[in-house]
Amino acid sequence: MINNLYKNFNRKERFKEIVDSVQFCNLCPRLCERRKVLSTANGNIESKVLFIAEAPGRLGADRTGIPLFGDRTGDNFETLLSNIGWQREQVFITNAILCNPKNENGNNGTPTKEEITNCSMYLSMVIALLNPEVVITLGMTALEAIKLLCIHDIKLRDDVAKLIPWNGINVFPLYHPAPRATIHRSLTKQRSDFMRLAKLVHPIDGLIKQKKLRRFKTQSLFPEENSLIQQVAQILLDLGGRMTYFKMTKLMYLIDFFALNKFGHTIVNDIYLRQVDGPWPPKLDKMLKKMEGYEIVRYFVHKIPMVAHGPSRRFKVQLDDKILETIVDVYKKYGDLGNSEIKTIVYRTEPMQFILQEEKKGKDMRNKPVLYKDKTIIQLKTSPPSRIQKSTEIE
Length: 395
What we know:
The chain is of the alpha+beta class. The chain contains 15 helices and 14 strands. The chain has helices at residues 5-8, 11-23, 61-64, 72-83, 113-130, 140-149, 156-159, 187-200, 228-240, 245-263, 284-291, 321-334, 339-347, 350-360, 377-381, and strands at 49-53, 92-95, 134-137, 164-166, 169-171, 201-202, 206-207, 242-244, 271-275, 278-280, 296-301, 304-309, 369-372, 375-376. The chain has a five-stranded mixed beta sheet. A four-stranded antiparallel beta sheet has the order 10-9-13-14. The chain starts with a helix and ends in a 14-residue tail after the last helix.
């Protein structure tokens, strides 16, 4: 289905973009120079099973680049998997944080709440990319990490080895296979937990059978009607994962500009005003606020406002196939550009060129409409309106 084009758009490339983004991450001061454990070595991105542990081990993943591998914890995990006939190549394995949290003595430390929160953005991206049927959390930290993405009241001690609905998928909480965790749950009991997992879940096919599941509190559903501007924002983040707020506004403008050329009308059916940094959709900020904490998260990097893929989607995008193709085409062309580069592209479009010419004549063009529904500023200023030059290609 072409309606899923943007969602399934080159999964390998999307994973590579997430990996590249992680490698340049500097959100956590004590971790930013350490190895980021996210790569093809984490497993199968087509898997319907996702394991989430706590953090890369000092002698394990921090050294090998392979999660849950190379130390005693990795050995325990390999044994538990092999006991039920599973192979790590069949599943995907990640951590609540992607860097080893060494303490001052150089030993494995405990990640802070801030570090888990910072890394939750990448965990959200991985879950959205894989879209697994079952998320298997290993230990309390993993449970707390997914709680940041969508609220739950799962308790490891009470709910271990139970299949529980969460955020549209299922969680299967287990104890961590680290030697210190065997104090709370022996390896014998953990082997029993994995055997129960194998009865309910297949590593490739996903859920084997359904059973009555305990219901947990979840966030309220998204309003039935969501605006077109929200849908376009959602698609952009599905494609890119995260971007500056500035870049989102300019990509939206380019999408609507080319849609107007191609179809005779814009997609969001709204207005873009002339601001200091170019065209700006006034309703976008208000619409993003309604999505915050669910479809999107917002934060700052070096005082630059960012928008990222959120933890809990509440609505489906319902746009025409041709419109989806236009959005994907614009993103493929301009999605990798930096802020200054995309600003240059925007300023070369006919409406902005017209505004710049008027400003050279001394006219005040602040807050003038660059685009308004199915017209550009050129058409709005012309009587009778002149037709915009047709163009079906993105330059």
